[in-house]
Design brief:
It contains 11 helices and 16 strands. It is an alpha/beta fold. It is about 30% helix and about 15% strand.
Length: about 425
């Protein structure tokens, strides 16, 4: 294994090849000022908490290692699970953060912590990271949504998926959202069905336009007499939907326009088709897209593998490997990968020790996230866990550090502030970017 220190010694470089000394604000300023392509972000959210021991931090030869084998990648010394062969071929663009250590092992609290960077307590309603970065990277004057969330499972914690004090203007446009573990409803061609409710008017265009004019007149009168927060929020949501319906970006949601071979390469499930949709949305200029990987055929509990871990993770890994690798390859082919920063994570990791049901339980003490794409120095693992996987032995980082790295790589300084509903300035991310 190549440690973070060995990697730095060999290269003498940090993220994007810049000096590690004072690089963070300089990098963010340069990315914004360079006048390059608009920046994009992708969050690959693993519902239920993915097992690091069976994906990106294998423990071969130890009893905790389990039945999966590790394989070499195209980055010297970096090894992944045998069930992630396509991602192994792209490891030179991936930075595996193996020293992640957090304090929330409950699904609801862990989901909120990882998606907002804050503990779920106190009076402040913190925004999910997609809303915060969508606000910074998006274009308010266009009809393109700044943040799209595909297949979110929100039952663990609804607030973790919302815009918080930023308000409904920065709420995600959701595709296939569910409060049940994701099903596998298919269309006539056998692909997972992903629909945007906001794009379904159900009436002819002329009739719809007349209804819209009437609604607009009534709405303005209503808001003039009742300028309450709830009324403004409802108006914002409806106007965003109408604006989207009349934009070029609406076509990005129609996956039938893609060749069958391309759709098959991504995978026919919700995650694979979601990754394809993410690519199409980024091409249209959407700033932040998240795609959730929940349940797959034969597995109703997503990554929450308290039992039968290895069969479940094998199936989940197949969807992850196909969808994520194709997303990166397609973005690279279109010249978009260098301007798109990707983060893979869930609410926590899973116990290295295998339980009596051949499963792994909740484990926030020592686990893994992965960064990729634009602004990321790939081909390395940052941090290290013990031989049994139970503790971080080198390069320990918290959620604040992870999100600060994510935002900085995307060109947004983590210390940039928004004012909360109680008048308190709130940084986008509380932490120190991982310079390496």
């Amino acid at each position: 294994m190549i440690s973070r220190r060995e990697m730095l010694k060999a290269t003498g470089l940090g993220l994007l090849g810049a000096s590690c000394s004072g690089w963070a604000p300089l990098l963010a300023d340069e990315l914004v000022a360079a006048g390059q392509q608009r920046r994009h972000c992708v969050l690959l959210w693993m519902t239920g908490g993915p097992t690091q021991t069976d994906t990106f931090d294998m423990k071969p030869g130890h009893a905790n290692g389990g039945e999966f084998k590790e394989i070499a990648t195209n980055a010297p010394g970096l090894r992944f699970s045998e069930h992630l062969p396509k991602l192994a071929g792209m490891a030179d663009r991936l930075a595996v953060v193996r020293g992640l250590s957090t304090k929330e092992g409950d699904h609801g609290r862990g989901t909120y912590l990882m998606r907002t960077g804050r503990q779920p307590m106190g009076p402040v309603r913190f925004p999910t990271i997609g809303s915060a970065l969508g606000k910074e990277l998006g274009d308010d004057t266009s009809g393109i949504p700044s943040f799209v969330s595909i297949s979110p499972y929100r039952a663990f914690n609804q607030a973790a998926f919302g815009p918080g004090f930023l308000g409904p203007k920065y709420a995600p446009l959701t595709v296939g959202a569910t409060d049940n573990f994701q099903g596998n409803e298919q269309d006539a061609e056998g692909y997972a069905r992903l629909q945007v409710d906001d794009l379904q008017s159900g009436v002819a265009t002329g009739r719809f336009d007349k209804r819209l004019q009437l609604w607009d007149t009534l709405q303005q009168r209503f808001l003039a007499s009742r300028p309450a927060a709830a009324a403004v929020a409802q108006d914002t949501v409806y106007r965003k939907a109408v604006k989207l319906m009349n934009s070029e970006a609406a076509r990005a949601f129609d996956l039938s326009a893609e060749p069958e071979a391309v759709r098959d390469a991504y995978g026919r499930g919700r995650f694979g088709q979601g990754c394809l949709m993410a690519r199409r949305l980024i091409e249209q200029g959407v700033s932040f897209v998240e795609v959730s990987l929940g349940s797959v055929a034969g597995n109703s509990f997503a990554w929450d593998t308290h039992q039968d871990n290895f069969n479940a993770v094998k199936a989940l890994s197949a969807e992850l490997d196909a969808g994520w690798s194709m997303l990166m390859q397609d973005l690279a082919d279109r010249g978009l990968l260098d301007s798109t920063t990707i983060l893979w994570m869930g609410e926590f990791g899973r116990t290295p020790k295998i339980n009596d049901n051949a499963g792994r339980d909740h484990f926030p003490a020592a686990w893994t996230a992965v960064l990729a794409g634009g602004g990321i120095a790939g081909g390395q693992a940052y941090g290290q866990t013990s031989d049994d996987g139970m503790e971080v032995t080198d390069g320990k980082v918290d959620v604040g550090d992870l999100l600060a790295t994510f935002t900085t790589a995307a060109g947004i300084p983590a210390e940039r502030e928004n004012i909360s509903e109680v008048g308190r300035p709130i940084k986008i991310a509380e932490g120190t970017p991982i310079a390496e």
